[in-house]
């Protein structure tokens, strides 16, 4: 027998829970998608041909208020579908689709195109669907998988087999679904931190670029702030400076001080004035004034040549007031290259704000690395961007690449490949023999990378069948992969002495790098004690390697 409260009995199925669901960043452009959807439960993740009936969102199919007959069993898929038409005048620029929570693994489709994938039944997620929308009615579809007995995910006290301490397992969409319209540049998230000792709060905003993508940087310690590459003068030669700047840009830096990389590759050239500019003039103020007159729309002044707080910042404010303010320019900056950066930036921020320059940005440099940057931010340093020099481009923490390469195989006159191996007392210097190829395995459920797999060049991985992999350093640790996708990583560049590869544009390479990083678990990416990312050898390749090791490196034949 199902018992309902008076509120449940009088539920408006067309729009349950109509209120705005988020306590922060409420926007007037709120379009609630709760209500009656189509649903189906199937053994496949493909779009159903026949739908089982109607379900009221945001109630789990197991809940009576949903009106659904049942929820998915283990290894079944739960599908949702509904149409929507944007109200007239709703769209300002970007349209965001929000889900309060979907239990457990979800993929969202808009007009048949995948718009988002998410794993985690308790966390909200969003997608920018602007490019997927069409005139008139749009079709929104969600595919969900939920294994309540899988310890990989947080599941609370839910089990398929209820009883004792275990509750009835819940699945599917169980929080509000809604749309909102935002401008090209908008606030994505807000973080408020009380600073009791200073009797104030610190407000941190995560914004979005004009492309609608979040402002992020693969120099992750910067916590969303811009990072510039400043290491040319300490790079290993001019090639190291030029190509190092290119690599830094691909890795997430917003630009470089190496102007040749701008001319050659299109890496944005960025920077500030030099100490020598300040020293060239009779006074610091004259140097700042001349620079502001020459570069009014790109005016970042270096304030630590003499005394930061007594002359540098006051003279910068004076130059801003006398040169920039009459022109109506409010965007400018200062840079620190020495001193106690946490202390100085806090003091400078207050001086700038008190003087009416809240939009003046603070940039810092001086032998920074990811741990120093993270430490500065923990101390509450008032920093908008970082210039990182030698500890980025010369990789101070790992100054050499920890790898070797040797001859792996030769091909005789008959076309037979003869594997070769380098043996060493140092395990890390023992090579993998033969002509090889590399696969990367991705989970179909989460889209995350599970492991890499090195095999012989003529081996083919069938990702429709389970595959057992093992830890190459501890072969007793094994794992069977199921429901995965295999992708070859190696791409031929030269074949038969001819170039067969079309080089992508630099920004395409950068975007690909950023996208691939999203497929790696945060535990693998953390700075300290990261989780191992496993690279396994195929059974055939491992057998050949062990045979060569046992034979002292000589091929048997």
Write a structural description:
The longest helix is centred in the middle third of the chain and has 17 residues, at 308-324. The chain is flat. β27 and β28 (474-481) form a beta hairpin. The strands form 10 sheets. Strands 3-2-4-10-7-8 form a 6-stranded antiparallel beta sheet, with no helix packed on it. A 6-stranded parallel beta sheet has the order 18-17-22-21-20-19. Strands 1-14-5-9 form a 4-stranded antiparallel beta sheet, with no helix packed on it. The chain contains 12 helices and 32 strands. α6 (308-324) runs parallel beside α7. The protein folds into 3 domains: 13-182, Galactose-binding domain-like (Jelly Rolls, Sandwich), CATH 2.60.120.260; 275-366, Aldolase class I (TIM Barrel, Alpha-Beta Barrel), CATH 3.20.20.70; 409-550, nicotinate phosphoribosyltransferase. It has 557 residues and is of the alpha+beta class. The protein starts with 5 loop residues before the first helix and ends in a 7-residue tail after the last helix.
């Amino acid at each position: 027998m199902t018992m309902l409260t008076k509120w449940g009995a009088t539920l408006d199925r067309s729009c349950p829970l109509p209120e705005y669901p988020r306590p922060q960043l409420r926007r007037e452009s709120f379009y609630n998608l709760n209500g009656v959807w189509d649903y189906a439960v199937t053994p496949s993740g493909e779009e159903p041909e026949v739908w089982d009936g109607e379900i009221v969102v945001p109630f789990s199919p197991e809940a009576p208020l949903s009106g659904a007959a049942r929820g998915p069993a283990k290894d079944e898929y739960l599908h949702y579908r509904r149409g929507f038409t944007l109200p007239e005048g709703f769209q300002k620029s970007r349209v965001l689709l929000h889900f309060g929570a979907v239990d457990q693994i979800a993929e969202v489709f808009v007009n048949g195109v995948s718009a988002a994938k998410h794993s985690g039944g308790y966390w909200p997620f969003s997608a920018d669907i602007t490019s997927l929308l069409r005139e008139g009615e749009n079709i929104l579809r969600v595919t969900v998988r939920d294994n309540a007995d899988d310890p990989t995910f947080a599941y609370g006290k839910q089990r398929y087999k209820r009883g004792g301490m275990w509750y009835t397992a819940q699945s599917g969409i169980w929080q509000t679904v809604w749309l909102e319209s935002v401008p090209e540049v908008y606030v994505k998230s807000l973080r408020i931190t009380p600073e009791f000792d200073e009797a104030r709060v610190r407000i941190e905003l995560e914004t979005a670029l004009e492309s609608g993508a979040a402002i992020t940087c693969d120099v992750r310690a910067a916590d969303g702030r811009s990072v510039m590459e400043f290491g040319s003068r300490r790079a290993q030669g001019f090639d190291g400076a030029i190509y190092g700047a290119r690599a830094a840009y691909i890795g997430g830096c917003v630009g470089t001080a190496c102007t040749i990389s701008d001319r050659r590759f299109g890496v944005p050239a960025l920077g500030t004035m030099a100490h020598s500019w300040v020293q060239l003039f009779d006074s610091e103020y004259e140097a700042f004034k001349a620079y502001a007159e020459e570069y009014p729309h790109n005016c970042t002044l270096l304030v630590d040549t003499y005394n930061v707080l007594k002359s540098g910042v006051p003279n910068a404010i004076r130059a801003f007031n006398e040169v920039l303010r009459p022109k109506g320019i409010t965007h400018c900056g200062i840079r620190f290259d020495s001193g106690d950066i946490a202390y100085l930036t806090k003091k400078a921020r207050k001086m700038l704000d008190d003087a009416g320059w809240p939009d003046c940005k603070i940039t810092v440099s001086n032998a920074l690395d990811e741990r120093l940057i993270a430490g500065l931010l923990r101390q509450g340093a008032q920093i908008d961007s970082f210039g990182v020099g030698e500890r980025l481009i010369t990789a101070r923490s790992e100054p050499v690449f920890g790898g070797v390469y040797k001859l792996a195989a030769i091909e005789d006159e008959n076309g037979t490949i003869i594997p070769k191996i380098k043996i060493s007392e140092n395990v890390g210097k023992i090579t993998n023999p033969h002509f090889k190829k590399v696969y990367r395995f991705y989970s179909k459920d989460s889209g995350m990378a599970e492991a890499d797999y090195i095999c012989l060049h003529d081996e083919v991985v069938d990702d429709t069948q389970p595959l057992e992999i093992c830890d190459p350093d501890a072969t007793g640790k094994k794992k069977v992969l199921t429901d995965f996708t295999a992708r070859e990583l190696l791409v031929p560049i030269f074949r038969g002495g001819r170039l067969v590869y079309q080089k992508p544009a630099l920004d395409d390479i950068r975007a690909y790098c950023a996208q691939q990083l999203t497929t790696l678990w945060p535990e693998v990416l953390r700075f300290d004690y990261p989780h191992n990312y496993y690279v396994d050898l195929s059974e055939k390749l491992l057998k050949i390697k062990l045979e060569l090791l046992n034979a002292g490196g000589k091929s048997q034949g």
